[in-house]
Automatic annotation (TrEMBL):
Modified residues (4-aspartylphosphate): D51
Name the record gives this protein: Response regulator with CheY-like receiver domain and winged-helix DNA-binding domain
Organism: Thioflavicoccus mobilis 8321
Pfam families membership: Response_reg, Trans_reg_C
PROSITE patterns, A to Z: OMPR_PHOB, RESPONSE_REGULATORY
Upper classification of the organism: Bacteria, Pseudomonadati, Pseudomonadota, Gammaproteobacteria, Chromatiales
Alphabetical keyword list: DNA-binding, Phosphoprotein, Transcription, Transcription regulation, Two-component regulatory system
GO cellular component: cytosol; protein-DNA complex
Keyword Transcription regulation attached: yes
Amino acid sequence: MRVLLVEDDERLAAGVTAALEAAGFVVDAERDGEAAWFKGDTENYVAVILDLGLPSLDGLSILRRWRAGGQRVPVLILTARGDWNERVEGIDAGADDYLPKPFRMEELLARLRALVRRAAGQASAVLVKGPLMLDTRRMAVSVDGVPIHLSPQEYRLVSYLMQHAGRVVSQLELTEQLYAQDFERDSNAVEVLVGRVRRKLGMDIIQTRRGFGYLIEQTDQ
């Protein structure tokens, strides 16, 4: 799942990027406000982590532009501790959550996972669809209670399809969410990845809708 990180502190951005990637996210990082606004307006992200103090265009202005243009991506803003005015302004501008600096990476990840779940209509951190269970906190997958070892890329695929269970996800959308922009992608990379995951989970869990994409069925569980 692809996230936009907008933070001009190079050291902090590197630390957050490493934590996000370890948690199964694909990260696009931007330091400049104008570039971040354009990328968030034109690319498909599951969430944005947005610092407010940025060069060329501040975070609040970016957020207001996105919301005025109909961009509904979940946004977690980073603010200076104790600056309640900034937090109120950010929420009024359309932010979904805020986190004061300094923060622990564990809290950042928990808040981000919650935003992504809510945006996808999922309430719990543990997703169950038929025999398949995914624990987003532990990045653990099991089928009928049997743990399944997945590579980071395989986990991203299962996680994205589980978060959007019941909806056919196109190959283009999966490509955007699973691979970094500078990653050299083969035309059949998603197809090969789905094939690997099916061999591990069972051939019927991920279904193909020819000409449309891939699907994990919604269930009552």
